[in-house]
Specification:
Beta-Lactamase, 23 strands, rod-shaped, seven-stranded antiparallel sheet, 39% helix, single chain
């Protein structure tokens, strides 16, 4: 039994010489017993293991307790064999010996190497995926985190290990702000995969909030027992913002179509009302009492037309007639006009060599005008409006919903009352206003115009600290064109240069599809001494013009 035991039995004296060895021991060394007995054991170890072997013997003889160590044998063929040496001191006939059991641990080392390789593969996989991964044991304590999870939570794996999941993975409900449910706890209770709530927000170590999605699942061993849980999560904050921008754009487009239709019809009605009021006023003597009332009605109608013009601008924001323009000139002209008579003063920080931009100058003028008016109204006691402009390049990774390329950014900053977080989410919604006299179209028009220019507008604000609007406009791909100078006797209509109407022209052809507007125009022309003819279609206009021309009229 001693000789044919599955492990090597060795007896060493205090100097490490082999006193006895069984057959299994000689098989490990691949040497006959006579070449091992009475020889130093040291020669059968590799260089690194030799001092370890002597240290092992010293501990055995000094402590008289069981000791163990791992060494590397070198057999007669030169093979290196990992072994475990377990020894205890023995006293026989007043002589100290070391009784040792030597076990070949090659299979164990191979298993450890395979496990280490598998762990390395797992580590590389976890490091390369874009999702955060946290694993826990059955008590909910963290056992593993990947780098993405470290980045999103703000905790390193070293700090998070053995910590309860809620201490590291701190989630709240996006809507209520209340603590969110622990997904791992639910996994461990149900034993099933669970999805994270749609309104889950991760609060990182530094207080940063990120909207999350994804799920948790149980970890099972080969016997199908649950030994932990894994949580996989993804930051979808940018995706949610893009979706919100898309929904906002679609809503604005729908409202714009509706607003355009209403404004067009209402504008025709107002035109008829205003025209008839004007004709009635002109028909009365100046000192007639009714004239004053008609003038007030005229003023009220003009104010109503201003609202319809805003609606039409909002609706037509999708059709800018763009050309290369100088942004500093646009800014200064718009700002000077907007703050005329105001208590605020502008402060310009316009970088030199700003790129020209591709814009509809009239529409961008209105955007800047609206932003300045908004800033002015936020500072009723006066203050400074800071206007900045600079060239920027949108590159991969920039958190802006814009194509890559060159842009000019324009920032309008005030130090006014600011906007609450609740209102900030609705600031570009049509008909939303925090002002008693506001109609809620100014910023909606800005948003619509900028988006249709292929740009973007953002807002940042804090109560009592002020508000900052930033617009991004695509840089022009060509240089500015010079505007041609026209002779005073010429007018430009859709491009061609036409001769101005002379005083001898007495007939005017009116093309208008709304009868009440056309009738009004004919009456006004008659009042001015012209003969008016009305048609409702383009074909009719061409036909009547030919007839009149051929008749010499």
């Amino acid at each position: 039994l001693y000789d044919f035991a599955p492990v090597g039995y060795f007896t060493f004296d205090v100097s490490g010489v082999v006193v006895d060895v069984n057959f299994a021991g000689t098989e490990m060394l691949q040497r006959p017993k006579q070449y091992v007995i009475d020889k130093p054991m040291l020669v059968h170890f590799d260089t690194i293991s030799r001092p370890l072997f002597f240290n092992h013997l010293d501990r055995v003889f000094q402590t008289k307790t069981r000791q163990s160590c791992e060494l590397t044998l070198r057999n007669s063929y030169g093979d290196h064999i990992p072994v475990r040496l377990e020894s205890i001191a023995a006293d026989e006939d007043d002589q100290l010996f070391c009784r040792s059991v030597m076990t070949d641990i090659t299979p164990l080392k191979e298993a450890e190497a395979a496990l280490a390789e598998e762990k390395e593969r797992l580590t590389v996989t976890l490091r390369s995926i874009g999702d955060g991964v946290i694993a826990t044991d059955t008590a909910g304590y963290i056992t593993l985190m990947n780098e993405v999870a470290e980045l999103l939570t703000g905790w390193s794996q070293r700090e998070a290990l053995r910590q309860p999941l809620p201490d590291i993975f701190n989630v709240i409900n996006e809507i209520t702000g209340e603590p969110g449910e622990n997904p791992v706890e639910k996994v461990l209770v149900t034993g099933r995969r669970v999805a994270v709530s749609n309104h889950t927000v991760l609060v990182a170590r530094d207080g940063t909030k990120r909207i999350l999605t994804d799920s948790g699942a149980p970890i099972r061993d080969t016997a199908d027992n649950i030994i932990g849980a894994v949580l996989v999560f993804r930051d979808i904050t940018d995706q949610r913002e893009i979706e919100a921008e898309l929904q906002k754009a679609q809503k604005l487009e729908s409202v714009g179509v509706l607003a355009g239709g209403i404004a067009h019809d209402f504008n025709n009605i107002l035109t008829a009302i205003l025209g008839n009021i004007t004709l009635a006023r002109l028909a009365l003597p100046p000192n007639e009492k009714a004239v004053e009332r008609l003038e007030k009605a005229e003023t009220a109608t003009l104010n109503a037309r201003h609202l319809t013009q805003q609606l039409l601008t909002f609706a037509k924001g999708g059709n800018p007639v763009k050309e290369a323009a100088s942004i500093p000139e646009l800014i200064k002209a718009s700002v000077d006009f907007a703050i005329s008579g105001s208590k605020v003063r502008p402060e310009y920080h316009l970088n030199g060599n700003l790129w020209p931009v591709e814009v509809d100058q009239g529409q961008i003028n209105q955007v800047i005008h609206n932003l300045i008016i908004n800033a002015d109204q936020a500072m009723p006691h006066g203050g400074t409006i800071t206007i900045k402009a600079k060239n920027i390049q949108i590159v991969e990774g920039d958190n802006l919903p814009l194509p890559l390329g060159d842009y000019v950014s324009v920032t309008v900053q005030d130090s006014g009352v600011g906007i609450s977080k609740e209102n900030l989410l609705k600031i570009f919604d049509p008909y939303f206003s925090t002002k008693e006299t506001g109609n809620g179209l100014g910023l909606a028009i800005c948003y619509s115009i900028i988006e249709k220019h292929g740009g973007h507008i953002t807002v940042e604000s804090e109560l009592d600290l002020g508000t900052t609007f930033t617009i991004y406009l695509p840089a022009a791909t060509h240089t500015l064109a010079l505007t041609p100078t026209l002779d005073s006797s010429q007018a430009v209509v859709n491009g061609p240069v036409l001769e101005a109407v002379t005083s001898q022209t007495r007939q005017v052809l009116v093309m208008e599809d709304e009868e009440m507007v056309a009738t009004l125009l004919i009456e006004i022309l008659h009042y001015l001494g012209y003969q008016g003819s009305w048609v409702s279609t383009g074909e009719s206009a061409i036909s009547l013009y030919k007839e009149t021309y051929q008749a010499g009229q």
